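Ligand-bound model needed. 4'-phosphopantetheine.
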Amino acid sequence: MPERLAICPGSFDPLTNGHETIIRRGLALFDRVIVAVTFNPRKTPFFSVEARKQMVRDVFPDEPRLEVDELNGLLARWASDKGAACILRGLRAPSDFEYELQMAQMNRHLHPQLDTVFLASEADGSYVSSSLVREVFVLGGDVSDLVPAPVLAAMKARS
Ligand code: PNS
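Prediction:
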């Protein structure tokens, strides 16, 4: 059987508990998962790409089936060059779907063999996004229940 590789792309600025769960569930479904940390020119970064990659490694220290990489450029080409079977994304709410559907269809237009698999997020974390976590943290709110411990440590070290 050929290896089933999934690419889990995102800004992960920072990685939330929701992201962690989606990656863990991806590891249960696929042989290997590559977390592709992107620089999104439409977003002002809180952490550098290198710091975000390190956070993923810190959250999954003993997972040989997980790789972390930086994605620059077109996701569909990058995923296809790596031989990925699919792109893995989490869906928190119906409002996510419009954007996600558009991206999935564009990626499939670019590389028709590439599928996007959506995993429904846990209901209790559906209101959590990286941008809200950043905003609450910067304004002195408690985000300790929303991000993995190594991420919280990195956020505290940055401020
Ligand atoms: O965590 P985000 O910021 O919602 O992730 C968005 C991401 C990284 C999946 C998207 O911006 C992306 O795919 N970027 C790579 C560039 C690309 O291929 N753009 C065309 C998407 S159809």
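The domain at 5-158 is CATH 3.40.50.620 (Rossmann fold).
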